[in-house]
Write a structure and sequence with these properties.
3 copies of one chain form a homotrimer.
Chain A (H helix, E strand, L loop, with lengths): L5 E6 L8 H12 L3 E4 L4 H4 L9 H12 L3 E5 L7 H4 L28 H17 L6 E6 L13 H15 L2 H8 L26 H27 L6 E5 L7 H5 L6 E3 L7 H14 L5 E6 L5 E2 L2 E2 L7 H11 L2 E6 L27 H20 E3 L4 E5 L1 H9 L7 H14 L5 E4 L9 E4 L7 H12 L3 E4 L20 H6 L3 E6 L6 E4 L2 E6 L1 E5 L5 E5 L9 E8 L2 E6 L2 E2 L1 H18 L12 E8 L2 E8 L5 E11 L5 E8 L4 E6 L2
Parallel strand pairs in A: 1-2, 1-10, 2-3, 3-4, 4-5, 5-6, 6-7, 7-10, 12-13, 12-14, 14-15, 15-22
Antiparallel strand pairs in A: 8-9, 11-24, 16-19, 17-18, 18-23, 20-21, 21-22, 24-25, 25-28, 26-27, 26-28
Chain lengths: 661, 661, 661
């Protein structure tokens, strides 16, 4: 892809009379649209009958756009198989956990592990790859679209065999599987791999390891499907390959994107949930550890379908959202969708143009985005996001564990977003990284809700702590083995041993009347909680009330040149967020992380750096404005004004400061 | 049917020892019961074994009742097929959207499109029709009972074939269907009609047109089933034919009743929801555009079954409910049921007699109804309901659209009832008419929640406006094509063009902070909202706050001698109701509709007219009494008192005034 | 079983490395564990392949424990069939009402009526019975575990045939069944038994008798399964046989325990719901009318699984719970479980030892229990619970009726627990007895929510009333026949006739504005309510407001030397509880029941008696302490202090007083 900040939209020329293409292009130019994403739902147009593939139409559109300065991200159309693939083929259809076999309609109605489907997918993928192999307009490829957005694990017959195969590879012998899963409980012991069921309906819960492994199996299989499409494309094209992912889909993004070239995603929070977008930026920037991502879809105003809609963004919000994306590492920012769907399901989704080509309510907002983009592009292309010194651990496997074992209805992603928001509020720059990520450069890492700590991760962390890192661990971390059983020797598993602290009790603290006070802030505690021994540890907070009064709940220990802080239970509600904000801030300060900007609530920032110097991007996401402290002399890029100390930020205002000294 | 006001009850002599019949008849006379409805659940009594039909029992009952002055409305017994039809015949059973095939039990467990079932239905229908062909006691026929009250569309294999046939007839070519439905979206394009699925389980929503058409298909098929039974009966009998319908069942009442002779219905709102009964009267009076209907079932006190019950009516309410029915066009008023069910499912439903023949808590209320009925009958038989000058549009198709596309969980019927209640509160006489109805005589029409405006309807409306009609359109009207897609050229479709206004934006106004003020009343706005251009329109209200401040939301335009008022968004909550009440009132006044009575809240009225003069029926439905203004000199019929101006109405009091001058 | 107070725990040695057994035994001794319950989930360990049964391991464990003074309650392992029974045998699996066939996993996934399964069950049961036939360590047998805890009635094909057989036995002819069930309603009449469906999915509710009978059929079948296992064991062993039951499972405990030797149960209310444990004690003590029971499972702290957990008991609560059990008739008090599950589903359940053998948060509580147990044992072994003079009727059949006909979402068990709690609060000692129980010794009986009064029960009650008993009947009693239809002649059936009162109206009082005042306490009324005739009755309370103002709602009549009090409607909410508390108290006083102790809220007591004299056990269950009145001179057993009149009870304190005079 070219070095530019793309501004784009999803485009469905196959749904419209060809006569409107020229009109569309003219309007795209007006709106500053430099790229379209195309083709992901067009299989029946490309191959209306089995084997009769004709890509002429798309070739012409791509050419025409290119002549008008508009590039294309082309997609494989596999999320929506044509009727000739599914009709009279129930065995190819997706089956959900309740045993319901999907009918034709909507999307993802097919099992992506079905061998017939895979053959069809291979053929259309190859045809497209060939067609646009060397086309300069096609600046990138998108595989399929939103894998597993509507569905989770498939329970069809094909998947049953593949499941057995996957288990055999993972566990090698049935005895090993029985031991690891602890199948002795409830006489669930298996005699051979082919007896192991998919976790379908039973009178009560399945063995935790069975349930979680089936999710992991599904994550692996969809990643394999993506890798297979990518491999086909690479035979013909050098353009980079991505997928349009999401944090909430039923995939392991790290695995999924590993064989691809860059990350892209879509998300549609309404403007009140702006921090979810920042979360996405901070997460997808790190999935491939390259500091980049692409916002492949978001709305110019509101998410919606025939089934309902979100409320519309407030005026000027979109500009801030897009500016933060570019500032946070986005190579591009695309809308879904250009022209309102006339039919189907998504007629009520925000769009740039109405079905009849009239600027929608989002149009003026898009023009503001383009104005901003043009202003920032020169500087953003010369700089990169400065990697934060604080990391937050994310694990798709941990999320799978919590689906199986939700305890107090814990939603893994919601909890991670909550912690991330606390970091924003604390004015802490941060990266969300996987437990496989390289830790170099980080001064502090927050690892919470990670039931099983993999050995390689622990080894990395220990080395990093030894060298000076501050690890803030917990709550709900380390209390399970990789097969979701209870560790053999310690409540919080191996970390107790290596870190040298001890848990006296591990029990449900929920509604027991327990609280904790840190630095004057008292919060109720909840979750499965660890009450620690007061032995060789510095106590940062103790249980107050409840069943284990006075026992330590937040402790600290030095480790090599670094240290470890262990949070034993979940600080609840807003008070809990205040407590964590204070604790994280103190830990960061002690770890030597600078927190100079003290942004008001709702103000976010990204530091960027490059040959050209250091920059500070600041914007208000909440619509109320506020201020930020400039810790030195800065020049506001647009106006050239120099200032230091407190700087006002207007409602949804986006500012770029160059650091002078 | 005779010219009388029937007062009746549902009767199940087949469930009781014959010895109680005489006791029943004696008590019916005491209660003033002049007609019974019989036979609808008695198939297994009539045809205990396949083909062995014996109607002797019912013949004797009908005779005995007739000798005692009690007529019969006889039913076909098809809602409850005997076990010998369903046992070992899964292929005949109803299948719901979730794919669950019904078991024997309850009612409507069979598919009414199943050819075997239709043959059985034909045979029993013919046998009954023959039996009572010329019987003077049988004053009317009821087909089946409450079609589609427990079930909606069937998803069995028979229905799949019929669906393909129905689509082929409607769309002729698959290309036409693909175009109309916009199946290009998500590659759902069909190659032939036989590939089109029933809208069963998919990962997400089906194409809107597929989903809605399946409902319309089902409406057509059940209407055909009714027509088939009616045709058989007509071969033998001249007595008029009806069905016991409802506004909330999964049918198109207009289609269903078209081949029948009069409308009848049941409903069971508790006394707090009295306006739902008035709604029914105003609706069913117009389904056949004949000003008549029959209340085939309601409770003497409360609705109930083994699964629960409504709270019981307050004392004296029943009389008001019945009086309003007769005054509003009812030919009869029947209770469900005469004698409490001893077994089955409905043991806890209100009744006139307990299982052991003792007057129930409703008995005295029924006596009050009969007293009222006798008092009003002479005048009601000489007069007819005076047709109101205000119409409210109702469309079963629109309702189907909202099932598919509920937006903000819009319940079409609940919204129509809400608007109707506003009209009651405004003291406006009204008719609820279909979009196929003749508009002559109306001065104003309210058309809301009608996504697709059919051409013939628009043509009628335009001619009527041209001639002076006031059309109050919206919210949520005109924004879809008849195939539930987005119109080609305008947000609100063709009405923009022909009426000469223009929508600038059409977007979800929900929770955007938008409000509107009309005549001093401010209400929050919600729904998909239109913000209009201020071009050649008179602005009645503007958006305040939100995303489109100052743009018009309620506009007015002259059209020929008439005018059009367009409401762009939903005024929300009670304030919204106040706003609409004011707006509707002003529009009515400007349209030349007299609103002389100014009834207190809870007081309703019907004007009646005939050779004998003009009458005003007034009653209190809410139990708190109030007053009404008599705009001239009137004589209270019962007492002969003459009065004008304010007249008091007691709690649940029913009054009939003759207009003197 | 020996004459001692057992203190035990569930033990799963099969899940652990044999090396920990010695460690476990040592810790059991420390905790005072004298018995373990073993084997119930160990089928796959005992018979890892079909027919290869090896019980050596369990033999050795039992021996080793015995050598250390620890007895065993051994179980049949049938709740968790091994994979070789279920794999590839869908026809053996349990099918729920929704038609979902269970997959392998969890527990109770098989149909206990399946003949193959029964054969496997017979064989393993016989092998175990033989193995431990004369073993002195095995002090009792437990059949299976928690029958029907996760599942209710099975809807498989086997059950369909057995259902037909069961019906044929019960009703003899199809005509009789049709008459009793009133199948004429909705043409559901059957021609033969084999046509009668299982009550699977229909468009609406099934015939009430069909639905309820299917539940009763299921209750019978599971009791037969238990009896079959018991008979096999008895061929080899003289040790007493029990089952681990529960009040909330889908069984008829009276039938289930009839062929067994003693009752045992598990329950896991958190400490706030302590009265549920007392309810269990008062119920299970009477199921076999022997004044004994065994608490087979409860938690040392909290109930939990991977799906969630209850909040943990407050400190010291466990001792009170256990003391009340022993005082109320418990032969033993066992925890679930000894050592935390490492895997499976129940990792988060309270335990005595963690997976790695460390005392858990419950450990110290268990030590307190043991201390208490040792203190009370000598006296409790010399005395028995003194049977209360007040009985509360419980009927599993009535519960089945309310599943079918819940009216206002009535949960039968919740209502019985509510009434029982009122009795506790009133300071009334009570027994919960079935409608088959011997009434001798009781002065008063409360019978509520018993829709159908069986003839034998009524005959017993009448004789008992005649001789002086006070029967407090209602609400919702007598209004159905044994086939859940409406009685032939009276609203409340035969009791009206024999007791000589009359119901004028029986109707839903819910939300009708009706209240009643008794002894100055006014409560809203709800439920299906009876309004009585004021004829030969003493009126204790009348309807106020509503539809039947001034009619009697609580009446009294003498009967022989006794009397009957009839409560016509449900007194609602807390005021209703106050009203009933007053009414029950007055009735008890009039019936000659002494109520001398006047315990504070949360204080409970049990009277015990024996050769050694009379004792009063008192404890606080609520954690706030309080007092009780000692009506005479008592000696506190532990301290020897003598006192009379008010005696303080500390938070969760357990006191035992010997009566001096």
């Amino acid at each position: 892809m070219e070095e530019r900040l793309y501004h784009g939209a999803a485009y469905y020329p196959e749904l419209w009379d060809e006569t409107i293409i020229d009109e569309d292009i003219e309007l795209m130019k007006q709106a500053g649209i430099s790229v379209v994403r195309m083709g992901e739902f067009a299989w029946s147009q490309m191959e209306p009958e089995e084997g009769k593939i004709d890509l002429t139409f798309f070739g012409e559109i791509v050419d025409k756009l290119y002549k008008n300065g508009i590039s294309t991200i082309f997609c494989t159309p596999t999320p929506t198989p044509p009727i000739w693939i599914t009709h009279n083929h129930p065995e190819r259809m997706f089956v959900n956990r309740q045993g319901e076999r999907m009918s034709h309609g909507a999307r993802q109605q097919i099992c992506t592990n079905n061998p017939d489907f895979i053959a069809y997918s291979d053929r259309i993928t190859e045809a497209i790859a060939k067609k646009f192999a060397d086309h300069p307009a096609v600046v990138a490829w998108q595989l399929d679209n939103e894998f597993k957005c509507h569905v989770a694990e498939c329970y069809c017959e094909t998947c049953l065999s593949l499941w057995h195969e996957w288990l055999r590879e993972k566990y090698e012998t049935i005895e090993n599987l029985n031991a690891k899963w602890g199948t002795g409980v409830w006489s669930e012991t298996y005699q051979s791999f082919d007896q192991i069921p998919q976790p379908k309906k039973t009178p009560y819960a399945h063995n935790a390891a069975l349930d979680t492994n089936y999710r992991l199996f599904s994550y692996d299989k969809i990643a394999q499907f993506a890798a297979r499409q990518a491999a086909i494309i690479r035979r013909y094209s050098k353009a980079p390959i991505t997928h349009n992912g999401h944090t909430d889909f039923q995939v392991d993004n790290e695995k999924l994107f590993a064989p691809l070239d860059f990350t892209s995603f879509d998300d549609y929070p309404n403007c009140d949930d702006w921090n979810k977008m920042i979360y996405d930026y901070d997460y997808f920037r790190n999935v491939k550890q390259d500091g980049k991502f692409y916002v492949m879809e978001t709305s110019s105003g509101h998410n919606g379908s025939i089934l309902g809609y979100e409320h519309i963004h407030r005026k000027d919000y979109l500009r801030a959202e897009a500016a933060a994306a570019y500032a946070g590492g986005a190579m591009g920012f695309n809308y879904w969708l250009w022209r309102q769907q006339r039919s189907g399901v998504e007629q009520n989704h925000g769009h740039l143009l109405s079905s009849w080509g009239k600027p929608s309510i989002g149009w003026d907002e898009v023009l503001k985005v383009e104005e901003m983009r043009k202003k920032f592009e020169p500087i953003f292309l010369k700089t990169k996001v400065k990697k934060a010194e604080l990391a937050q651990t994310y694990s798709a496997t941990a999320r799978a564990f919590f689906f199986t074992e939700p305890l107090e209805r814990i939603d893994y992603n919601r909890e991670q977003v909550r912690l991330h928001k606390i970091l924003i509020d604390a004015g802490l720059a941060r990266e969300i990284i996987s437990d496989n990520a390289d830790l170099s450069g980080y001064k502090m890492m927050i690892t919470a809700y990670l039931p099983a700590i993999e050995k390689t991760f622990l080894r990395n962390v220990l080395a990093w702590c030894e060298a000076g890192g501050t690890w803030v661990v917990g709550p709900l971390t380390g209390f399970r083995t990789p097969d979701q059983s209870v560790p053999y020797d310690y409540a919080l598993g191996i970390i107790e041993l290596v870190m040298g602290f001890e848990t006296r009790y591990f029990y449900p603290v929920k509604d027991s009347g327990a609280a904790a006070t840190y630095s004057g802030i008292t919060a109720e505690l909840t979750g499965l909680g660890a009450a620690f021994e007061e032995k060789d540890v510095k106590v940062l907070a103790r249980y107050e009330g409840g069943r284990t009064p006075d026992l330590p709940v937040i402790i600290e220990k030095p480790y090599g040149k670094g240290r470890i802080v262990v949070i034993g239970a979940i600080p609840k509600g807003e008070a809990g967020e205040q407590l964590l904000l204070k604790l994280y801030g103190d830990c960061a300060r002690d770890a030597g992380i600078a927190m100079p900007y003290s942004p008001s609530q709702g103000i976010i920032f990204y530091e960027r750096e490059g040959e050209d110097g250091e920059y500070l991007f600041v914007c208000d996401m909440q619509g109320q404005g506020g201020k930020i402290i400039l810790p030195g002399l800065y020049e506001e890029v647009e106006t050239g004004t120099r200032l230091s100390g407190p700087a006002a930020v207007g409602a949804y205002e986006c500012l770029l400061f160059r650091k002078i000294k």
